[in-house]
Amino acid sequence: NAGVTQTPKFRVLKTGQSMTLLCAQDMNHEYMYWYRQDPGMGLRLIHYSVGEGTTAKGEVPDGYNVSRLKKQNFLLGLESAAPSQTSVYFCASSPGGFGYREVGELFFGEGSRLTVL
Amino acid sequence: AQSVTQLDSQVPVFEEAPVELRCNYSSSVSVYLFWYVQYPNQGLQLLLKYLSGSTLVKGINGFEAEFNKSQTSFHLRKPSVHISDTAEYFCAVSRTGGSYIPTFGRGTSLIVHP
Lengths: 117, 114
Fold this sequence. Notes:
Largest sheet of chain B: 6 strands, mixed
Radius of gyration of chain B: 14 Å
Number of strands of chain A: 11
Largest interface: A-B, 26 and 25 residues
Order of helices and strands of chain A: EEEEEEEEEEE
Oligomer: heterodimer
Number of strands of chain B: 12
Structural class of chain A: mainly beta
Shape of chain B: globular
Radius of gyration of chain A: 14 Å
Structural class of chain B: mainly beta
Number of helices of chain B: 0
Strand content of chain A: over 45%
């Protein structure tokens, strides 16, 4: 079972370059999330989606854009990368909605390590 | 809005000793509570969760947690740790209604020494 797959796993960018992180899930989950993890800061929510075609801002959305054109995919874009965006990025998905046994439980990918020079 | 405080950033312990990782939350509404574990260079995985019912929740790998509503706490415990339990542990909370978007604590690094 693939679960949640993130690509690429590692990337080095120069300041000002753009890139897209791809997240794919094969569990038919409604909700998808992008987090960043920095030492001592825990996980901070960047953007999330509660269904195909919808997106919403999280705690730290500035400098990022997202799209959810297909239910199984959630893309995170950096239009002009900055050194402050050096981080490990995690995608997650969850069933969402009332009545699911797995309510609130997130399934995570293995992370994408991004370095911006 | 809800928030989560993990009181210890790092907890060193010797193998086979008991351990408690502390988590306190703040919320104006009812919540669901979770503990996740992150092994080195991996994503997070669910250890256990409290949705309703018994306040003592048992999870994988011998961990358990107790929901204390009056103290707004959800501390994680294990009676005897192993080297393999060395990892980062995250407490998370989400509202019982609405979109269930969870809020994570900053994490506690459990370091088990031989």
